């Protein structure tokens, strides 16, 4: 143990000649309990990953581990599980959004490889946007609303919606490696002046 400071628990000694031994002792004593905790929350394969990531954090933060390591390790495991679940949820939402957008967009004609790539790229880009950004962009470029009309749909001021629309265009342009619109003053799908808007509008028009 390290020297106990007033008001603080003992911590693990991490001098260069004892760090590896200290870590090995923590692993041997507590990895089964951490694994059992992970197994109550995730599938077996993910549980193995949770244990590995938890003890990677333990190695990197060895000096911060208190004299009783298990509660500290469980907190790290819990946070790691929460992060993994959020990541899984985002991936599932992205997959669902892509499927939904694809379902309302017609498949290209046989042999139209370039169009197929463009369509898939655009759909993936749209699906990767946040729900708010995607809706702002599609109301104008897909549904043909003016910013004023779309702002009313969102229940915000026109200026607020224009900022939101500009942000959405920039984010989508970054996802597609396309140059973003020069100005947030987007008046309609046909008057936006951005190649990005034209591409989305063309995709929408082909669904009609």
Describe the 3D structure.
There is one protein chain. The protein is mainly alpha-helical and about 210 residues long. The chain folds into two domains: about 20-95, Rna Polymerase Sigma Factor, Chain: A (Orthogonal Bundle); about 110-205, Orthogonal Bundle (Arc Repressor Mutant, subunit A). The chain has eight helices and no strands. It has helices at about 20-40, 45-60, 70-105, 115-130, 130-140, 145-155, 160-175, 195-205. The radius of gyration is 26 Å and the shape is elongated.
What is the compact description of this entry?
The protein has 208 residues and is mostly helical. The chain has helices spanning 19-39, 44-60, 69-103, 113-128, 131-141, 147-154, 158-176, 195-205. It is elongated.
Could you list some keywords that capture this structure?
mainly alpha, 208 residues, Rna Polymerase Sigma Factor, Chain: A, Arc Repressor Mutant, subunit A, 2 domains
List the SSEs and their pairings.
Blueprint (H helix, E strand, L loop, with lengths): L18 H21 L4 H17 L8 H35 L9 H16 L2 H11 L5 H8 L3 H19 L18 H11 L3
């Amino acid at each position: 143990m390290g020297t106990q400071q007033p008001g603080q628990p003992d911590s693990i000694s991490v001098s260069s000649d004892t760090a590896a031994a200290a870590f090995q002792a923590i692993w041997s004593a507590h990895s089964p309990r951490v694994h059992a905790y992970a197994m109550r929350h995730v599938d077996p394969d993910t549980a193995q990953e949770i244990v590995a990531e938890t003890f990677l954090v333990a190695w990197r933060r060895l000096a911060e581990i208190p004299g009783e390591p298990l509660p500290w390790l469980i907190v790290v495991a819990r946070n790691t599980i929460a992060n993994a679940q959020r990541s899984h949820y985002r991936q599932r939402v992205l997959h669902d959004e892509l499927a939904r957008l694809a379902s309302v967009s017609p498949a290209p004609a046989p042999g139209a490889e370039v169009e197929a790539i463009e369509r898939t790229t655009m759909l993936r880009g749209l699906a990767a946007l946040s729900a708010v950004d995607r809706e702002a962009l599609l109301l104008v470029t897909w549904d043909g609303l003016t910013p004023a009309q779309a702002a009313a749909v969102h229940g915000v001021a026109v200026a607020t919606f224009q900022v939101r629309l500009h942000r959405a265009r920039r984010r989508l342009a970054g996802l597609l490696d396309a140059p973003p619109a020069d100005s947030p003053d987007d008046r309609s799908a046909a008057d936006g002046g951005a190649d990005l808007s034209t591409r989305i509008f063309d995709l929408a028009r082909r669904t009609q």
